[in-house]
Amino acid sequence: MAKSRQPRAKSSRMRTTRRRSVASPSADRGNGRRRLPVNKTYKIYIGGKFPRTESGHYYELKSSEGTTLANVCRCTKKDLRDAVQAARAAQPAWAAATAFNRGQILYRVAEMLEGRKPQFADELQWIGHTRQASINEVELAIDRCVYYAGWADKYQQVFSSVNPVASAHFNFSIYEPTGVVGIVAPEDSALLGLVSSLVPAIVGGNTALVIAAAERPLCAVTFAEVLHASDVPGGVVNVLTAPAGELLPHLAGHMDVNAVVYCGDAASDIRDLQACAAGNVKRAILRGGSDWSSETAQGPYEILETQEVKTTWHPIGT
Amino acid sequence: MTTSELILPAMASVTRVDTVGVEERVGRFQTRSIKRDSKVTALKLALSMIDLTTLEGRDTDGKVRQLCYKARHLHDALPDIPHVAAICVYPTLVGVARRALEGSRINVASVATAFPSGQSSKKVKIDDTRFAVSEGADEVDMVISRGAFLEGEYAAVFDEIAEVKGACGEARLKVILETGELGTLDNVRRASVLAMHAGADFIKTSTGKVEPAATMPVSFVMLQAIRDYFYATGRMVGMKPAGGIARAKQSWHYLVMLRETLGQAWMTSDWFRFGASRLANDILMQIAKERDGVYQSIDYFSMD
User: Which chain A residue's Cα is nearest to B288?
Assistant: First the structure.
């Protein structure tokens, strides 16, 4: 008896697990109470505020089952312009914050992410991830924030150098942030790809604007809320949602953007990016094809990609 | 007109202002869609109306010479752009500006009359004005005594403006109302009427030292006062919003308001000015953006 009961109980538990459906934003919670669900309006994040796009345009985001998840802002070049302005205004103060302080703030981001794990996991499930894969991705994203938080006050002393020169000079090279970085987040990873491409840029004192994955923008907007609640000053990160191809030429040509991190792999986009970026000799950093869940997607060299080397010649007495 | 012809109007019967109506009307000036060629035309007009200003305690001869150089060479990479209307400085620096601008058609404007507070004796204010004019100022920007105005001493304020106007001689007189200290739009209208009857060639919103400085509602009330004064007397008076206008977009909002309130005759630097320092660069960036098709960075434009 006991033996035959055991497997039944096990299998019924497994069935329950398999049947448990994710509460999509419009689903009936099934607890007997009839109420209208209060769904979140997914807006954009510019200068520490959550406005709608200036254009008033939006696109419909569908779940993997075909239901509408949200009407997402379809940002235009004017939102991009506003985001660059906000990022530029925030940059000097963010770069002037101590490295230790920036690390603390990024660690705080990880703490806030930890608390919001279920929300991110839900959003990943709506677009077709399994529960387990969703939780894995959120946890990896949290760990990645902690990883870069640790590097905040270390990369400088690891990579800066004192250089031998053949004159009476003390010659040294240090890293400085390049300024405002535009990031085209990868389409294949809603949260982890975003975190992995964004955090190394801001840890070194840059400010950023992110064009979130057009097909997976929900996590990006929710991540903006996390940043907003984590002592990250307004304007340090700005999040826009739109098909990346529509904004990329304006981003790549913008004279006040110092670097673009492009995580897609469309050959025509890359060609346009590199051509437009020549206008002010901005860096075009290509990170398409990365395996975001692999350890190779993180490292101090990702920080250096958006840093400039400053070499100083300091006269010394003989 | 001579000083003896000036008569203080009955201040109690000056038209009252409907604040809600003003705000609604002003809101509509900001909804015009002005693109491409019209935008460039508007931006160039706005550029030609700027009084490039430096009014800091730390101003030096070098700073003023640099500003004058900027006035003559706004952005040499852009062809066909106009020069600004004037340089606006303190009286002691008028001579420096005069020499630096020799051979150009850019005017030198000087603030005077114990700018920015106006808290001094009438004698000092008149001397201040005479000094600025003797140094070579083409235009004098005076401040009214706001304390006296708010106490209702309209005759005293009126006389002071009239006497300063007398001391200006050939120079054009701009009268700064400092609307940020006047409190209500009714007071703005009253001060505008008083200044125009006392002989002002221009009325100007602010010193730039008090917040809020120029706003659209305040400027709209002043423009309406100019219009009604023109209908009553046939004399044109100019308008100068100053302080707080830093964006190119704001400049064409003001131009729309000017065109729709006073008409085409006022759409020149003879009758309308922007008191600003940062505005010029933002306008240049917009013109460059229209030409090159990419958003600009302040890194590629001259420092203010």
Answer: A255
Percent of chain B at pLDDT exceeding 90: 97
Q: Which of B141, B165, B201, B282 is catalytic?
A: B141
Q: Which CATH class is domain B19-300?
A: alpha beta
Q: What is the CATH number of the domain that holds A127?
A: 3.40.605.10
Compute the average pLDDT of residues B237-259: 96
Q: Average pLDDT, whole number, for chain A?
A: 91
Does the beta carbon of B295 lie under 8 angstroms from any beta carbon of chain A? yes
B chain contacts of residue A84, beta-carbon cutoff 8 Å:
295
Contact B295 A81 (CB under 8 A): yes
Domain count, chain A: 1
Computed over every residue of chain B, the mean pLDDT equals 95
Mutate to test the interface with B, among A180, A256, A280, A281 (most CBs of B within 10 A): A256
ipTM surpasses 0.85: yes
Q: What residues of chain A, 270 to 289, have a C-beta less than 8 Å from chain B? A: 276, 279-280
Q: Structural domain of residue A82, as residue ranges?
A: 69-315
Using a CB-CB cut-off of 8 Å, the residues of chain B touching A273 are none
Each residue of A114-143: pLDDT tens digit?
999 999 999 999 999 999 999 999 999 999
Question: Can you list the alpha helix ranges (DSSP code H) found in chain A?
Answer: 2-19, 77-96, 99-115, 117-126, 131-151, 155-159, 192-203, 218-228, 244-253, 267-277, 300-304
Does residue A241 contact residue A44 with C-beta atoms inside 8 Å?
yes
Domain-located, residue A122: yes
User: Is B44's pLDDT higher than 80?
Assistant: yes
CB contact under 8 A, B295 and A254: yes
